[in-house]
């Protein structure tokens, strides 16, 4: 099984009938996760070589083609690029949301950021900064995707997406072609249980004053990584009460294996925030949160909505890991409705 999982793919651009770069050359390499994630039927594990020479893991699932009658009436769906948060990797999208959106006609790419999942690690104490992570995503989009995609980010991945979309304005203002390619244009962005533009410090202080026990638990769970050894704490932090313990244990193991190094230096990160404002009022942003989110509270969700001047959607009966929680379909359906309105 391990040998099969380690048959990976490196980039070679080939124009497909949907205009998306495909990857063909095959390479065998050792898995970085001790318990590698096995891709589902219809999914491929690809690797994109970054300018640094490091390889970024990409889990890809092609959107189902419409029949001939639908082709005459429908417009081209934008590709979807998914960005995970701390303690996760591309696998968290591959479980449910990649199959769901591909079945609805969207080509789906889930990325593992540096030092996470099967992606290479830099020679540093942390994986990167908002700028370096966003630049890696931009490099992938620029070189591998032919149509402006929709960028979707979860938790701290949502903060990376916010940095990305804030810097697309520099590309619009740029006069030379090199500058324009730094942050390729998008068709829109979805922020999923996202850390707000000011970072997580506001969340922490609110918890300290209003929910001191919850503040202690979330600090112990995330900062001290106690979620890795305590199944009840992992469940309370990321999942709904109705989530089966067997599934929680599986995801607990994947989260532990995925996060070989921190995504950020949080002190330096908070010093760089808030992210710049989006200057293009026509840019489409969708903000969805979870009512039972133990990490990002309602005020954090509303802060993000106010920052972008758009209403927020808060899903009942689902927790922070909205894409792998037992009611994952609720969040996916809300995003699909928004995506269909983009056409």
Question: How is this fold's topology laid out?
Answer:
Blueprint: H1 2-5, E1 7-10, E2 25-28, E3 43-49, E4 55-61, H2 68-71, E5 80-83, H3 91-94, H4 97-103, E6 108-111, H5 130-144, E7 150-154, H6 156-173, H7 177-180, E8 188-192, H8 201-210, H9 212-223, H10 231-238, H11 245-258, H12 266-271, E9 285-290, H13 298-308, E10 312-315, H14 328-342
Helix pairs in contact: 5-6, 8-9
GO molecular function: carboxylic ester hydrolase activity; lysophosphatidic acid acyltransferase activity
Organism: Capsicum annuum (Capsicum pepper)
GO biological process, one term: lipid homeostasis
Characterization of this structure:
The longest helix is centred in the middle third of the chain and has 18 residues, at 156-173. Helix 5 packs across helix 6 and helix 8 (201-210) crosses helix 9. The radius of gyration is 19 Å and the shape is globular. The protein has a domain at 41-169 and 179-199 and 259-340: Alpha/Beta hydrolase fold, catalytic domain (Rossmann fold, 3-Layer(aba) Sandwich). The strands form 2 sheets. Strands 3-4-6-5-7-8-9-10 form an 8-stranded mixed beta sheet, sandwiched between helices. It has a two-stranded antiparallel sheet with strand order 1-2. The chain is built from 14 helices and 10 strands. With 343 residues, the protein is an alpha/beta fold.
């Amino acid at each position: 099984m391990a040998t099969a999982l380690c048959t990976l793919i490196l980039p070679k651009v080939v124009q497909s009938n949907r205009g998306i770069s495909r990857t063909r050359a095959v390479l065998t390499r050792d898995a970085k996760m001790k318990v590698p994630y096995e891709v589902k039927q219809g999914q491929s594990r690809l690797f994109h070589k970054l300018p640094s020479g490091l390889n970024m893991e990409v889990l890809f699932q092609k959107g189902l083609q419409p029949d001939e009658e639908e082709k005459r009436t429908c417009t081209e769906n934008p590709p979807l690029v998914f960005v995970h948060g701390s303690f996760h990797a591309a696998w968290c999208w591959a479980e449910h949301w990649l199959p769901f959106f591909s079945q609805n006609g969207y080509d789906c790419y889930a990325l593992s950021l540096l030092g996470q999942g099967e992606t290479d690690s830099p020679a540093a104490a942390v994986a990167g900064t908002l700028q370096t992570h966003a630049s890696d995503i931009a490099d992938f989009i620029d070189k591998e995707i032919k149509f402006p995609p929709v960028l979707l980010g979860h938790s701290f991945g949502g903060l990376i997406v916010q940095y990305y979309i804030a810097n697309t304005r520099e590309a619009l203002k740029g006069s030379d072609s090199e500058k324009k390619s730094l942050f390729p244009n998008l068709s829109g962005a979805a922020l999923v249980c996202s850390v707000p533009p000011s970072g997580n410090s506001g969340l922490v202080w609110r918890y300290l004053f209003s929910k001191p026990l919850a503040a202690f638990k979330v600090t112990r769970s995330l900062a001290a990584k106690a979620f890795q050894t305590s199944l009840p704490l992992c469940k309370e932090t990321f999942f709904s009460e109705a989530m089966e313990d067997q599934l929680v244990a599986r995801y607990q193991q994947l989260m532990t294996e995925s996060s070989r190094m921190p995504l950020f230096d949080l002190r330096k990160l908070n010093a760089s925030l808030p992210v710049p404002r989006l200057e293009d009022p026509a840019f489409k942003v969708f903000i969805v949160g979870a009512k039972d989110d133990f990490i990002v509270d309602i005020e954090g969700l509303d802060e993000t909505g106010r920052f972008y001047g758009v209403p927020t959607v808060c899903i009942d009966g689902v927790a922070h890991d909205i894409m792998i929680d037992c009611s994952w379909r609720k969040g996916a359906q809300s995003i699909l409705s928004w995506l269909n309105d983009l056409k």
